[in-house]
Amino acid sequence: MYYIRNSVDISVHFPEFFHCVFFKSDGSKMYVSRSSNGEIYAWDLSTNWDVSTAVYNSEMVDLSGYGNNLSGIFINSDGTRLYISDYSFDVVRQFTLNTPWLISSAAYVDSVSISGAGDIADDIFMKSDGSELYVCDYDTSKIYQYNLGANWDITTAVYNSKFVSVGSEDLRPRGIFINSSGTTMYITGEANDSVFKYTLSTAWDVSSAVYDNVSTVISEDSSPIGCFLKSDESKLYIVGSSNAYVYEYTSTHIDETMDILKLQNKTKMLPGIKVPLRL
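Predicted structure:
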């Protein structure tokens, strides 16, 4: 059985150094951060979850005033709150999207220091109810967990002494994604150009994460960084810093979760679709 791979050119102004990819909850919109200029760009997908149908809609936001090395981005499920990390600063910042899912409507709210755990926050993720923050630390090869005293209020985040080391799998973790039930975690590792899968025996408790000995090499980009999964885990999306493409992979389900070993690049059998995006 073959698994289709689509790809889309996201160069816009620049040819490389894209860092994180994120999707609207219905798959109709895609967001990508560029690490070296502090900007986030948005694309509309005419077919939900199919990146080959993405069209740049001239929508972007310049957050360079909050740090030029923007790395992780996270948007809550109703599209009203945006969170970003910057790998050169030990903070996570919160913004309000005055128009849901419209990235250009972002207005700064506040920030929290993560200097105690997660000094180089390459990516972030949040629990679906906004009560937990997860920080992917490139420097220590660990995932740290913070508890939010008030859901979605980043200023109430407190490190709860929970973490997991992923250094045995990859010494340069760059991206994190946790499934909707909080029982499966995916990590993008730049050192080995792979995505690794972990099981959380206690939902949403990162300290309970155990590596499943399941991984796949991402050969399309020599520095894969950001990862995102469709809510049913049937699709995986990867963006890297070596070129300007978002890659889409499809997979079958096994025991209602994605078998990441099944992800294959079938370029010879079914070429990926590359669609230039122009302003």
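Summary: The domain at 5-262 is CATH 2.120.10.30 (Neuraminidase).
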